Automatic annotation (TrEMBL):
The lineage of its organism: Eukaryota, Metazoa, Chordata, Craniata, Vertebrata. One of its GO terms (biological process) is mRNA processing. One of its GO terms (cellular component) is nucleus. This is RNA polymerase II subunit A C-terminal domain phosphatase SSU72. Its EC number is 3.1.3.16. Its main location: nucleus. Gene3D superfamilies: 3.40.50.2300.
């Protein structure tokens, strides 16, 4: 799903492109051109117990995940919202995408967990620089629960709106992030990498 209101090519990354963190991604997508990625080695969905997640390869389609969980326990995965989320996701794209396998160029990459931020920065820094085009990588830690995901979604959406309205993102982003840190009481990590 690519919308065209944004002048910046943006992507959002989370560990496995699933659970509560997808809520903020879907909110961001309402007004901006955003692609979403996972950075983990597998896609993990909640299972019948916290220590028993459903683990899938990134090559597995949303439709295959949906049908697998439907077979395993329709009531559980309907009640916890996973089937609804997979149904929504399969209408957007066939399968989750892994950031490290994507060679597209972005202006802004948003992460919601410091570990994911580190993986994105490490991957970008390990690539051969070809164009020297800058990409801003920004992290705001968001706990993977409903309340934090909802609050984080609004914060990230507001941040994207402010970035959208900057005249010169390169020169205004540090001040903008400082204002958001003061306003939200959260610390943002920010680095610039180059393609």
């Amino acid at each position: 799903m690519v919308l065209s209101k944004s002048k910046h090519r943006t992507c959002a990354c989370c560990k496995s492109r699933m659970p509560e963190s997808t809520k903020e991604i879907s909110k961001i997508k309402r007004g901006f051109s955003v692609r979403s990625f996972g950075t983990g080695t597998h896609v993990k969905l909640p299972g019948p117990a916290p220590d028993k997640p459903n683990v899938y390869d990134f090559k597995t389609t949303y439709d295959q995940m949906y049908n697998d969980l439907l077979r395993k326990d329709k009531e559980l995965y309907t009640q916890n919202g996973i089937l609804h989320m997979l149904d929504r996701n399969k209408r957007i794209k066939p399968r989750p995408e892994r950031f490290q396998n994507c060679k597209d160029v972005f202006d802004l990459i948003l992460t919601c967990e410091e570990r994911v931020y580190d993986q994105v920065v490490e991957d970008l820094n390990s690539r051969e620089q070809e164009t020297c085009q800058p990409v801003h990588v920004i992290n705001v830690d968001i706990q993977d629960n409903h309340e934090e995901a909802t609050l984080g979604a609004f914060l990230i959406c507001e941040l994207c709106q402010c970035i959208q309205h900057t005249e010169d993102m390169e020169n205004e982003i540090d001040e903008l992030l400082q204002e958001f840190e003061e306003k939200s009481g959260r610390t943002f990590l920010h680095t610039v990498c180059f393609y």
